[in-house]
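Customer escalation, tier 2.

The customer says the design service returned an amino acid string that "doesn't look like it belongs to this structure." They asked us to rerun it and document both sides in this ticket. The original structure tokens are below, unchanged.
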């Protein structure tokens, strides 16, 4: 009876996934672990954290393997208007279109977070009302922006008085009815700040 010849074990290479570096595989595995850990927080916040981390991983991978990013001057900076009243939102959008910023309007914090997840690095100004459609209000949105996108200028507005401790320290408060000049001044300050560096 002949002994069957056993072949030596194959070295641990990327044969199962050609072209994918081992550190990228490690990052992917780490992100799965992060997802499990983040399940301890409310689902909408866990989903937000996962999406932001995935965007960071994709950006890092593109920067290390992809073509050089376009110069910052070619990417338009964004003013994000978050207001559930369509007339007031349209007024703010029309006003901000007079600046060099590209204007994006949203009626809820959830819609604004979707824009921020996709274009957070381009957002120069977030102009948000406290009362919004959806589950999150403008104060919760302001806290999320201050934490996750600290380079965006944050302006919160309301027709009701607010105590300063309710707002993030980085936020500017403008009472309703706001004056066009006050909004334009904040937009100009946001546009004048340099875009965040590409890391």
């Amino acid at each position: 009876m002949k002994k069957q010849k056993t072949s030596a074990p194959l070295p641990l290479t990327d044969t199962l996934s050609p072209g994918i570096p081992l550190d990228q595989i490690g990052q992917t595995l780490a992100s799965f672990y992060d997802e499990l850990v983040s399940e301890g927080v409310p689902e909408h916040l866990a989903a937000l954290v996962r999406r932001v981390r995935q965007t960071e991983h994709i950006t890092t991978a593109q920067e290390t393997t992809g073509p050089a990013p376009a110069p910052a001057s070619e990417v338009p900076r964004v003013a994000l208007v978050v207001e559930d009243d369509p007339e007031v939102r349209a007024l703010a959008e029309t006003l901000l279109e007079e600046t060099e910023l590209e204007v994006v309007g949203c009626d809820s914090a959830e819609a604004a977070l979707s824009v921020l997840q996709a274009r957070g690095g381009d957002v120069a100004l977030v102009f948000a009302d406290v009362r919004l459609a959806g589950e999150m209000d403008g104060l919760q949105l302001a806290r999320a922006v201050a934490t996750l996108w600290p380079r965006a200028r944050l302006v919160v507005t309301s027709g009701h008085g607010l105590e300063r401790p309710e707002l993030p320290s980085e936020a500017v408060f403008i009472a309703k009815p706001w004056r066009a000049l006050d909004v334009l001044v904040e937009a100009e300050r946001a546009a004048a700040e340099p875009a965040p560096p590409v890391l």
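Tier 2 assessment: The sequence is consistent with the input. The radius of gyration is 23 Å. The chain has six helices and five strands. Sent an explanation to the customer and offered a walkthrough call.
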